[in-house]
Amino acid sequence: MDLQYFLPRPDLRPLVRAYYYFSTDSASVQPLCAELGNIRVMLKGGGVLNTPNGGRHVIDKAFLIGPTMGAYSMEAKAETRVFGIGIRPLGWGVLIGMDADEAADQVIDLSAFAGGRASPHIEAIRTAPDFQIMANAADHFFSNMLSMRQKQQNAYPEALEKWLMDPSDPDMDALLASMDVSRRQTERLAKRYFGASPKYLQRKYRALRAADRVRAGVSGWMDAAGPNFYDQSHFIKEFKTFIGVTPKQFISNQAELISEIQSQRQAQARNILLSSI
């Protein structure tokens, strides 16, 4: 199994989190944690994607998967090769133009969704001789999408994103105080850009932060969990809901891919910071 990450062009980074290349020489079932939306182009092989809503989707083409609201898994055939693209919440409004809650846990054929304009870019990615050229082709695809977008986008809810990322887990009152809109509009914005209600999203982000701490080697469930779980059983249940395995399994070979993804993303974040200095 191999996993590589590559940064998109600087002007695309607020919209596109990263490009990645996944390969496996042997058939495998890989657990995947709850994520933001993705585009994936199957370069070789294929398999089945088991989404959190119980769906089983044969994957052998290029497809869009909305934000996932729980852990899911991929049954990959031997010799599978995938080029993936992580879409940030802002990218849903600017690039995808579809409310994230409509796409949550859904697998959508990319050519059917994006129309004929996507086909040459998908082919360019599939026939590229190396990862760098694949990334360049993806940059070109998104640049074209940006130039074709005519609709004026509503202001992105940065306060909501900051609230979700806050490790202190502030309550809903803190969120509403930081938003310049009503509770109903806050709920609508959360669903539009992130795919679910603020309270549900906070559960998701809380579990993902706990996974980062577990992977970093934090000992003791209370330190790994943080202050906002009722007890150990609640922590384990929530961890498994959004990460797909128990904390103990997460640090074992069963969670090899998830651990690698977490490690690569942290390295990617450091590279973004260094490139901005």
What's this model, at a glance?
The chain is an alpha+beta fold and 277 residues long. It has 13 helices and ten strands. The strands form two sheets. It has a six-stranded antiparallel β-sheet, with helices on both faces.
Structure description:
The chain has 277 residues and is α+β, with helices and mostly antiparallel strands. The protein folds into 2 domains: 2-148, Jelly Rolls (Sandwich), CATH 2.60.120.10; 158-275, Arc Repressor Mutant, subunit A, CATH 1.10.10. The protein has 13 helices and 10 strands. It has helices at 89-96, 100-103, 110-114, 119-127, 131-148, 158-165, 172-178, 183-193, 198-215, 221-225, 232-243, 247-250, 256-275; strands at residues 2-6, 16-24, 28-32, 37-44, 47-50, 56-59, 62-65, 72-76, 80-87, 107-109. The strands form 2 sheets. Strands 1-2-9-4-7-10 form a 6-stranded antiparallel beta sheet, with helices on both faces. It has a 4-stranded antiparallel beta sheet with strand order 3-8-5-6. A hairpin with a 5-residue loop joins strand 5 and strand 6. Helix 4 runs antiparallel to helix 5 and helix 9 packs across helix 11 (232-243).
In total, how many beta strands?
10
Mean pLDDT: 88
- CATH H-level superfamily of the largest domain: Jelly Rolls
Number of helices: 13
The computed structural class is alpha+beta
Rg on CA atoms, Å: 18 Å
The main β sheet shows up as: 6 strands, antiparallel
Low-confidence stretches: 272-277
Name the CATH class of the largest domain.
Mainly Beta
* Adjacency order of strands in the biggest sheet: 1-2-9-4-7-10
Terminal residue distance: 33 Å
Beta-strand portion reads 15-25%
